[in-house]
Write a structure and sequence with these properties.
single chain; alpha/beta; FAD/NAD(P)-binding domain; seven-stranded mixed beta sheet; five-stranded parallel beta sheet; binds flavin-adenine dinucleotide
Length: about 425
């Protein structure tokens, strides 16, 4: 069986690696190199994550096993403990904010008291009208209004009232009353997967990506522009001249349907309604910091996050990537950076197209319409933009592992019949 995998990001490479031993697999990639949005670029010998800093960890044992046993052995990675900060009302406090109330009290005692009061009064009835409502019910009004709503307005470039809250589960540490009070006496810690993470000993994420790609049949500089199905041969035809028995998609599903011959107009319309944000980044030489990253909820800067990428390296160096939502110019990014003396010198700049799926009110409905159609015509689709979800690399790998199982189960059940 000959399989085409569309796209060679983490998802395409993972499913490629998982299937290549048993099938004839070809990965088609439009850009000149594999790796997708997780790939880095070398700038003055430093690996610059052009789509924003990436660290790896997972709560799923099968994902860790795949990566450490089959892609890059665990001794080729070093472990880093997250030390994240929030620049909150001009002060640097620890992340997550709900565990930093004592620090808030040191510069605004009244706000700290209101946060505690509102947190304890929050009425979480497990029913949420929108993302803003979710923050209010999980964290109380004061924390929602002072931090979560402005920060989310910034990173989504959209009113949290107009957003679906279902994606946020598992993305944030959620305190309960006990952990909240423990934090006030100084002992609470969140246990999110990225509170500790791995980075390659080469100080470059591309080592992981290149190991994932090793031995795979990847055809770069091939943009998938058309897909059709030939009834008499039962073959898929890509770009009029490439023939396959099966297609696995990882390219964005807002763009895929219009490439498929005879796709109904209603599906193409639903796909076109799926929205996403671009991200602009800049690599900087900086002053020293001990932090791994810093969140910036305030509206006085267009940056929403600093990734102190130099602190992912061994030995550590003073480099940071700043991220801003949308397409910003080099001048906007560098001028904005001048407001913060921590950022010393801009070194490089990049704008990524597909970066963040936007979870607006209609995303679920439109996504389901497209996924159902792809399912009906037997095109598998996985990955961050292939499933249109807020997936980190590990979840992309998890999807690939699950798809491999599904493909094998289907083959066995057909053979048994
Ligand atoms: C700012 C930011 C920070 C992140 N930080 C982390 C992190 O710290 N840890 C973590 O685990 N994850 C992180 N992620 C998520 C991670 O980047 C993704 O989960 C993962 O890289 C997605 O891989 P993918 O293969 O699904 O998609 P992509 O990487 O987008 O791959 C899709 C591929 O398809 C190709 N393609 C598109 N159209 C066509 C076409 N028509 N023909 C052929 N090829 C095509 C593209 O060129 C691309 O190579 C972050 C994401 C962002 C945006």
């Amino acid at each position: 069986m000959k399989i085409a995998i569309l796209g060679s990001g983490i998802t395409g490479l993972s499913i490629g690696k998982l299937l290549s031993e048993d099938f004839d697999v070809e990965i088609l990639e439009k850009s000149s190199i594999h790796g997708g949005i997780a790939r880095t670029k070398s700038v003055n010998g430093i690996s610059y994550h052009v789509t924003g800093g990436h660290c790896f960890n997972s709560k799923y044992p099968d994902v860790l096993d795949f990566v450490f046993q089959h892609v890059m052995h665990k001794d080729k990675w070093h472990k880093i403990t997250r030390d994240a900060a929030i620049k909150f009302k001009g002060n640097e406090i620890n992340y997550p904010i709900e565990f930093a109330i004592k620090q808030i009290a040191s510069f605004d005692n009244e706000l700290a008291i209101n946060i505690v009061k509102d947190f304890l009064n929050a009425n979480d009835d497990n029913s949420y009208e929108n993302l803003e409502d979710w923050f209010r019910k999980k964290f109380g009004n004061a924390l929602a209004e002072e931090y979560f709503i402005p920060y989310n307005q910034k990173i989504w470039n959209r009113d949290p009232k107009e957003m679906d809250p279902s994606w946020v589960k598992d993305k944030l540490p959620i305190p309960n009353v006990k952990s909240f009070f423990q934090s006030l006496i100084g002992t609470a810690k969140d246990k999110m997967p990225h509170s500790e993470f791995y980075y390659p000993n080469t100080n470059n994420q591309n080592s992981f990506i290149d190991n994932l790609a090793k031995g795979l049949n990847i055809s770069c500089n091939i943009e998938v522009k058309s897909i059709s199905f030939e009834d008499n041969t039962k073959k898929w035809i890509i770009n009029d001249n490439l023939y396959y028995d099966k297609i696995i998609n990882t390219i964005p599903i807002n763009e895929l349907p219009k490439l498929i011959f005879n796709c109904p107009e209603s599906i193409i319309k639903s796909a076109a309604k799926l929205k996403y944000n671009k991200v602009s980044t800049m690599l900087w030489e900086t002053n020293p910091t001990k932090r791994t990253w810093t969140y910036l909820p305030d509206s006085d800067t267009i940056f929403h996050r600093y990734i102190h990428i130099g602190n992912f390296f061994k030995p550590k160096i003073n480099y940071t990537i700043t991220e801003a939502i949308g397409e910003k110019s080099y001048e906007e990014m560098s001028e904005n950076g001048k407001k913060d003396p921590f950022l010393v010198k801009p070194l490089d700049y990049h704008v990524s197209n597909h970066a963040y799926v936007i979870f607006d009110d209609n995303y679920k409905e439109n996504k389901e319409i497209v996924l159902n159609y792809l399912n009906k015509i037997s095109i598998h689709t996985i990955g961050r933009f292939g499933e249109w979800e807020y997936y980190n690399m590990d979840i992309c790998i998890k999807s690939a592992i699950e798809l491999k199982t599904e493909i094998f189960n289907n083959l066995y059940s057909k053979n048994e019949k």
